[in-house]
Amino acid sequence: MPPANAIAASQGSKGLKMVQFTLPKNSKVKQGKAWNPPPEGAEEGRWREYRIYRFDPDTGENPHLDTYWVDMKDCGPMVLDGLIWIKNNVDPTLTFRRSCREGVCGSCSMNIGGTNTLACTMHADEAPERIAIYPLPHLPVIKDLVPDLTHFFAQHRSIEPWLKTDTPTPQKEWRQSRDDRAKLDGLYECILCACCSTACPSYWWNGERYLGPAVLLQADRWVEDSRDERTGERLDDLEDPFRLYRCHTILNCTKACPKGLNPAAAIASLKRQMVERGE
To answer: Does the model's pTM come out above 0.85?
Structure first.
């Protein structure tokens, strides 16, 4: 949801009424601390500047941007390596999620240089000279770079992302042809990092009811699966003005996906199947 709430209207130029907005209390980001400036006469290009969003709800203070400098000769090449270097060598209170470091788990998703991506797969050389890092946008922040994904995962569970069948379970496995298996390419690879959903304006505005690109891509993955026997039931569950149809094909989701997937195409496929089954 947009972070501001309209509270009044004032008289603007030419008699037009201009809406005034205020941010929620303690939400304005302030300038923070500069932690470890490079030593005087430091080798050019050796130190990279990181500006990192810091927020601790326990203090009641506004979020702030702290500045750190990372010694690139003592650090790996990825942005995540820089964050780990800062935590290990400068500021152990810096909080962020990470796990696999291989672009598989989706834990380290964050906004780097204005783009939602994975810190473990973004090379520091691909980022702006001053690397600005924020948590994923338009989500409640637990602390620093850790967003609250409770609602996101609750939406994922609501589509029942598992195989649903009515026929007796086979003794070995559910068989699937190669052609049917190929239909899942571009769908099963989603790692639920939430980069696409938090880049979607429709999800910002209607996140409580619109499922968002990531969850809808997952929904299409199970609708397309030839082994699943509840396709009609799954489509019925999406037949709602908000759950599916708040997508306006802005395509931010496809641009943001760090795995190169196309959630917009998956959403279009769901809409098409809705139309086809009604004919």
So the answer is: yes
